[in-house]
């Protein structure tokens, strides 16, 4: 049997809107230490107390945390720690903090008004997604901000010890004196408050939806009847807010989502986003974010997945994407609640895309969402929403061609280059800003898959900016190399390659190829990957060789391999040796695995057929280094084909390392056999395949078909 651990906070009506902030902070701590997903928020507002007047109405928040009996003691101990960590002096009007061991309940009473924001400041959102900042860090900030905290906590502990019955460990009454009669009555009302159901079934869902609809209707009626007297409809607004929050419990039963569609609840949820009261709108957005959370699907059955898909489809049909995007215009991010609502809006869109990737195209084509994201990443001041906007932009642009073209229409290339230019001579200040920078770089790389974007990139002087970053050797250098790689890929990268050579890019890229400054990069940046840099730089050189069609440009490129006593060729052959060794290790492991497979009982089930197994082995070899080795082999073949002088130097360098052009030809032949990624134009793919086979025959005529 489960025990119930409850946290209750009673707050003045003045701070009613801040109550969710407080509860989220408590909830984050509880989830962290109690390791439970079964956390439900159930706010209630007692009508008896309401009659006394708005200024005297406490807004109660109860958080139920179900745990198995053998975990209850440990959880309660951590909750004690939480209460002791809250500096009593900061509460000012606080009468007492009490702990009811019999009911496993902690009660924080606020009877005269407290700055809830200062006590339970909503932590900045992390990169992903629905989780608050580490509650341990949150508690640490509370401790640092209040010097007399330890004294206050000691007083609470001492007072508790004095009142505790030594013979009955879990018995007794509240362990804090000083409660007024009014406060005791409030506690009695708390005891009488209805508890949310432990489980959600179909009848329960229908009751919840019906109750929500009744509250919506009542609120509309009261607003229509008393449009100029907020006190007349504030009670109905509070009830509506409460029911919206209660609906979050439905996220545990996505298999019942089709019933929400049948009950027309989706229409109501979408309409609530446009409610005149921003707080109601904010609560509705948070509800949608919870209901569409990708974690809900991950933990559900196939029926739950189908329910979620149907729910998301219905949301799209009810134009929730348009409503969410338009609603962001009235949110003021100077306010913590509005700032959180912006985060939840972006999160909801991301959730929906994770359920149905086609929604990425829908949100771009039917709303101004991408326009908003591009504007949101521009301000110099950094915050979590700016980071999330950059991540969402990257997700959209990665999805398909239409969002990438839309980015170009909105001058997104210019905007992203302006954003990235700040990192030309400085590094991001922390890990969050570093991730923000990477998101923008990733979005740019994805966009460069389109010929139209490559042209805009050239016109916006993107090449020049990337080359400056390579020269500065800051954190942005590593991502600038990746951008250049994507900008030059394919036949549609020819103009980029020509422009690259015109702006003296060869000198810079071959300095990277020769690993100049690599020691400092390794020492300074833990994110630096030598393997990744090798892949990008040799891919760039391969693209230059493929696209340098004029005699003048091609000769300038070949001269780079001749200068400085052929040092570039030595480096190239060294890479060939290095990556050949890596692939050989992978081949040996695959051979051992294949031997084990063949020695197994023939009746054993084999999950993969022969073709699937071959593909799996090939992909593993690519990851091990074959991908880079193929580019190295292509570069060797191209320069050997262009110059007898270079051929002689290459042959000697290979022989010195126990290899030959015939072995290079084998690598290139395998590359030709597997050439094409399914995205390349068929005519272009055929043209490149023919060229690869020509180079193979040039290196080793015996491999000719």
UniProtKB/TrEMBL annotation:
Residues 145-177, 590-609 are annotated as: Disordered. Keywords: Coiled coil, Nucleus, Phosphoprotein, Repeat, Ribonucleoprotein, Ribosomal protein. One of its GO terms (cellular component) is ribosome. GO terms for molecular function: structural constituent of ribosome. Residues 179-285 form the Beta-catenin-like protein 1 N-terminal domain. GO terms for biological process: translation. CDD domains: Ribosomal_L31e. Belongs to the eukaryotic ribosomal protein eL31 family. PANTHER family: BETA-CATENIN-LIKE PROTEIN 1, BETA-CATENIN-LIKE PROTEIN 1 NUCLEAR ASSOCIATED PROTEIN. This is Beta-catenin-like protein 1 N-terminal domain-containing protein. It comes from Synchytrium microbalum.
């Amino acid at each position: 049997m489960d025990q119930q651990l409850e946290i209750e906070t009673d707050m003045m009506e003045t701070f009613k809107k801040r109550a969710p902030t407080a509860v989220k902070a408590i909830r984050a701590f509880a989830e962290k230490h109690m390791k439970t997903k079964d956390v439900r928020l159930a706010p209630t507002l007692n009508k008896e107390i309401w009659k006394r007047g708005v200024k005297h109405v406490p807004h109660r928040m109860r958080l139920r945390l179900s745990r198995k009996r053998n975990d209850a003691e440990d959880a309660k101990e951590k909750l004690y720690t939480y209460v002791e960590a809250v500096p009593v002096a900061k509460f000012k009007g606080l009468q007492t903090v009490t702990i009811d061991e019999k009911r496993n309940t902690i009660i924080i009473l606020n009877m005269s008004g407290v700055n809830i924001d200062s006590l339970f400041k909503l932590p900045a959102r992390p990169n992903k997604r629905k989780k608050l900042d580490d509650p341990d860090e949150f508690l640490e900030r509370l401790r640092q901000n209040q010097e007399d905290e330890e004294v206050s906590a000691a007083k609470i502990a001492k007072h508790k010890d004095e009142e505790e019955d030594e013979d009955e460990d879990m018995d007794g009454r509240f362990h804090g004196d000083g409660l007024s009669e009014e406060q005791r009555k409030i506690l009695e009302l708390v005891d009488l408050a209805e508890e949310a159901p432990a489980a959600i079934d179909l009848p329960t869902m229908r009751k919840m939806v019906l109750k929500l609809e009744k509250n919506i209707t009542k609120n509309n009626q009261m607003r229509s009847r008393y449009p100029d007297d907020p006190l007349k409809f504030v009670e109905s607004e509070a009830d509506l807010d409460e029911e919206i929050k209660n609906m979050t419990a439905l996220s545990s039963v996505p298999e019942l989502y089709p019933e929400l569609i049948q009950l027309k609840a989706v229409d109501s949820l979408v309409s609530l986003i446009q409610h005149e009261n921003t707080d109601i709108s904010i609560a509705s957005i948070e509800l949608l974010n919870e209901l569409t959370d990708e974690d809900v699907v991950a933990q559900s059955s196939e029926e739950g997945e189908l329910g979620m898909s149907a729910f998301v489809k219905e949301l799209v049909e009810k134009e929730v994407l348009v409503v969410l995007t338009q609603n962001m215009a009235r949110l003021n991010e100077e306010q913590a609640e509005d700032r959180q609502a912006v985060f939840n809006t972006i999160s909801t869109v991301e959730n929906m895309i994770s359920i149905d990737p086609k929604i990425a195209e829908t949100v771009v084509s039917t709303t101004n969402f991408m326009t908003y994201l591009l504007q949101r990443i521009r301000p110099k001041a950094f915050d979590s929403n700016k980071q999330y906007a950059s991540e969402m932009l990257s997700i959209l642009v990665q999805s398909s061609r239409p969002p990438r073209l839309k980015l170009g229409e909105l001058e997104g290339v210019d905007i992203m280059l302006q954003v990235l230019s700040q990192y030309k001579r400085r590094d991001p200040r922390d890990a969050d800003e570093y991730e923000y920078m990477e998101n923008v770089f990733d979005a740019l790389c994805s966009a460069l898959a389109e010929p139209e974007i490559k042209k805009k990139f050239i016109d916006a002087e993107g090449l020049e900016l990337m080359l400056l970053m390579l020269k500065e050797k800051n954190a942005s250098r590593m991502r600038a190399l990746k951008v250049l790689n994507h900008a030059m890929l394919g036949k549609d990268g020819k103009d980029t390659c020509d422009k690259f050579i015109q702006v003296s890019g060869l000198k810079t890229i071959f300095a990277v190829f020769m690993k100049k400054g690599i020691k400092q990069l390794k020492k300074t940046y833990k994110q630096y990957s030598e393997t990744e840099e090798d892949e990008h730089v040799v891919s760039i050189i391969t693209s230059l060789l493929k696209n340098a069609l004029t005699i003048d440009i091609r000769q300038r490129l070949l001269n780079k391999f001749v200068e400085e006593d052929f040092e570039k060729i030595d480096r190239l052959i060294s890479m060939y040796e290095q990556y050949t060794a890596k692939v050989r290790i992978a081949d040996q492991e695959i051979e051992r695995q294949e031997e084990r497979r063949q020695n197994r009982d023939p009746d054993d089930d084999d999950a993969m057929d022969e073709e699937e197994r071959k593909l799996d082995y090939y992909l593993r070899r690519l990851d091990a280094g074959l991908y880079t080795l193929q580019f190295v082999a292509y570069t060797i073949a191209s320069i050997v084909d262009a110059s007898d002088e270079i051929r002689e130097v290459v042959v000697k360098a290979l022989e010195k390392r126990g290899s030959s052009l015939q072995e290079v030809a084998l690598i290139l032949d395998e590359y030709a056999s597997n050439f094409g990624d399914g995205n390349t134009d068929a005519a272009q793919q055929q043209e490149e395949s023919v060229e690869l086979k020509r180079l193979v025959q040039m290196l080793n005529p015996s491999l000719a078909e």
